[in-house]
From TrEMBL:
Protein name in UniProt: Diguanylate cyclase/phosphodiesterase
Domain EAL: 23-277
Subcellular location: Cell membrane
Shown part of the complete sequence: 510 to 788 of 792
């Protein structure tokens, strides 16, 4: 028995070392990427359902590492969260997205809003407000053209504290959007206290909207509730015309997803934006 236990132990240690080594390597590359400006932002259009006009863009971080290849945010954002690297990365994202949006506006394009994802740790950091104020001041972007996407579960973790932070952000004049809405178990009594502009209906509810009556019912209820609270709605992960038609029948308002366009480089987005606005 002792022998077996020893083997299992060695196996476990070997596994752990492999895991730790991989993690350390990724962390090292992440620090390198930060120091050498190896991140880029893609932009995905947010579209008015009725007019087909682009009214915003979500900024999504991209990382291509020379050694490891392209690494999805789902893989490195959690590590950035654990290590605290999310603070400087998040600052970079905010600054870059604001600067980009200001540059688009300066070309004479009709102004749109740029949506930036705020991670849980970023949302709770003490100097969040200064970071945002700084990004706006540095770039000259009017706060009403910056939207912060904060997930419902981030807000619901210590909801009372979150509401205070949301109120401060609201006073700054930035827009607030509750990301992944429907997955974070907030109740109506909380929701009516969130000073937010928009609910972003999670793509897990949109996916089967035409085939799963439960998902259709949830989305219908969320949109009706949002309307009664005077909050806008946007559906994410819209991939088909059928999904769009259903959302339009509910007067969802806005949508984002592959059906319109995948996330793309700033240059490509700008070409699409100009074309969309002069159509
Ligand atoms: P999210 O905020 O929910 O972003 C939406 C994700 O859905 C993006 O994945 C986007 O590319 C993808 N998507 C958009 N349209 C469709 C569609 O029609 N179908 C499907 N199946 N997917 C669609 P991405 O870019 O891989 O980002 C994944 C997550 O990583 C994001 O989820 C967000 O939580 C996080 N993330 C991305 N960029 C940033 C960032 O700059 N800062 C922070 N803190 N998190 C970020
Ligand atoms: Ca988002
Ligand atoms: Ca989302
Ligand atoms: Ca989601």
């Amino acid at each position: 028995a002792k022998q077996n236990g020893g083997d299992a132990h060695h196996f476990f240690v070997a596994e752990m070392n492999a895991h730790t080594t991989e993690r350390l390597e990724l962390e090292g590359r992440l620090r390198y990427a930060l120091a050498h400006q190896k991140f880029t932002l893609d932009y995905q259009p947010q579209v008015d359902i009725r007019s087909g006009r682009i009214i915003g863009a979500e900024a999504l971080i991209r990382w291509h590492d020379e050694q490891l290849g392209s690494i999805a945010p789902a893989r490195f954002i959690p590590l950035a969260e654990e290590t605290g690297l999310i603070m400087p990365i998040g600052e970079w994202v905010l600054h870059t997205a604001c600067a980009q949006n200001k540059a688009w506006q300066d070309t004479g394009c009709a102004p749109i809003s740029v949506a930036v994802n705020i991670s849980p740790r970023q949302f709770r950091q003490a100097n969040l407000l200064e970071t945002i104020t700084q990004a706006l001041a540095d770039t000259g972007l009017n706060p009403c053209f910056l939207e912060l996407e904060i997930t419902e579960s981030t807000i619901m973790h210590q909801a009372e504290k979150s509401i205070i932070t949301l109120e401060k952000l609201h006073k700054m004049g930035v827009r607030l959007s509750v990301d992944d809405f429907g997955t974070g178990y907030s109740s109506l009594s909380y929701l009516k206290r969130f000073p937010v502009h928009k609910l972003k209906i999670d793509q897990s509810f949109v996916r089967d909207i035409n085939v799963d009556p439960d998902d259709a019912a949830i989305v219908t209820a969320v949109i009706a509730m949002a309307r009664s609270l005077n909050v806008l709605t946007i559906a994410e992960g819209v991939e088909t015309g059928g999904q769009l038609a259903f959302l339009d029948s509910l007067e969802c308002g806005e949508y984002q997803g592959y059906y319109f366009a995948k996330p793309m480089s700033a240059d490509k987005f700008f070409a699409l934006l100009r074309n969309n606005q002069t159509e």
